[in-house]
Amino acid sequence: MVQNPVDSRSRRATYARAAVVAAGIGIASLLHFLTPESLILWHNIFQRLYYLPIVYAAACFGWRGGLIAALSSAILYIPHILISWHHMPEYAMNQYAEIIIFFLVGTITGVLADRERKQREKLEATTEQLSKVNRELQDSFEQLKRADRLSAIGHLSASLAHEIRNPLASIEGATGILDQPDISEEMRKEFLEVIRKESRRLNRLLSDLLDFARPRKPEFQPVDPAKLIDSVISLVAPTVERNGITLTRRVEPSSPFVRSDPEQLKQVILNLTINAAQAMPGPGEIELAVSAADGNVKISVKDQGSGIPEEDLDKIFDPFFTTKENGTGLGLSVAHQIVTQHGGTIVAQRNPDRGMTFSVVLPAYEARSAQAL
Ligand SMILES: Nc1ncnc2c1ncn2[C@@H]1O[C@H](COP(=O)(O)OP(=O)(O)OP(=O)(O)O)[C@@H](O)[C@H]1O
Ligand SMILES: [Mg+2]
């Protein structure tokens, strides 16, 4: 039979402890027998030496161990009392009384040690159980994450197929018409324009998809959010002002820099601002604001547009969720991905009156004096 090395190691340790107890009792007894009766002070000391192996036995082997050690001490010590102290009955009685104390000390220490051991075992069992539960939880969490990823991939492929099929069908239809011999110049131009528009749409879809599927790793730098929103405003303003939309900026004085990839963060704020403008059918105001709180910087885009119905709020960051005829539905999911890579958060809130506010919260970059970008 193969012996478990742990078992044999613990058996060896038990024998070693028992040997220490036996040696302790043996030495105390020997000292008694070898020391002349005239050195009574030494005898008093040796007699108390028995407590060491008794307490040690009780601690190692529980109340039974304590009791056996006390009994062994008594068996070895009593002959000495009988031989050496029979002429001093009072002193001999004291020694017998001490032997009773041996038993009490051995038993009480043993009971306490047993109780402590039981508690420790219970604690160890609970710890073991807890770590098992923790491992199981971890496993189920991993499984859930895998299932979630798989269902996201399935969902994504279905939406992607749909997104590609629509422009392809338009292109195919247009080529069919262009193929006819008696087509007017006007119609030819119109259907060529359809093909151009749908190709552009496919192109945009694919580049957005690439951004989403293979996001570039951010190259972090200290960025001044105020300058960033200024550059977004100057990009978007000329187009939206034609529709009567004004872009305003509200920047808290001395708001800190953020640690970010300037191009990617600009893309996020640009996406939010374009969405805001697209949600406003008539004139109104879009406010881009920067504020600081608790070591973070908040960049928000607030519009007065049509808003998002409550039931759609948890879908807007999903890839391909769009309510626009020509939208890819990737703008917000790309933004979400970028912000997450920056260690930040992005949230959408319905304004109390009308429209939406999208807020991006990023950790502040400590050195305000760093080079702005
Ligand atoms: N500011 C907003 N106000 C109202 N609805 C919004 C706003 N921002 C986003 N949405 C809603 O969320 C949807 C998803 O937006 P997202 O930017 O991801 O895609 P999209 O704008 O539809 O397409 P793309 O960005 O590719 O043009 C939008 O179709 C729109 O319904
Ligand atoms: Mg968009």
Task: Summarize the topology.
Blueprint: H1 5-34, H2 40-49, H3 51-84, H4 89-178, H5 185-213, E1 221-223, H6 225-241, E2 245-251, E3 257-260, H7 262-278, E4 284-293, E5 296-302, H8 331-341, E6 345-350, E7 356-365
Parallel strand pairs: 2-4
Antiparallel strand pairs: 1-3, 3-7, 4-5, 5-7, 6-7
Helix pairs in contact: 1-2, 1-3, 3-4, 4-5, 6-7, 7-8
The structure holds adenosine-5'-triphosphate and magnesium ion.
Magnesium ion is lined by residues 271, 274-275, 331.
Mean pLDDT, as a whole number? Answer: 89
Classified by CATH, the class of the largest domain is: Alpha Beta
Structural class: alpha+beta
Query: What gross morphology would you assign?
Result: elongated
Largest sheet geometry? 7 strands, mixed
**Tally of helical runs:** 8
- Helix content percent band: 55-70%
Domains, number: 3
Low-confidence runs of at least 5 consecutive residues: 367-373
Query: Between the first and last Cα atoms, what is the distance in angstroms?
Result: 75 Å
- Would you count the extended β strands for me? 7
Per the CATH scheme, the topology name of the largest domain is: Heat Shock Protein 90
Q: What value does the Rg take, in angstroms?
A: 43 Å
Write the element-wise H/E pattern from the N-terminal end onward.
HHHHHEHEEHEEHEE
CATH architecture of the largest domain: 2-Layer Sandwich
Q: Tell me what portion of residues adopts beta-strand conformation.
A: 5-15%
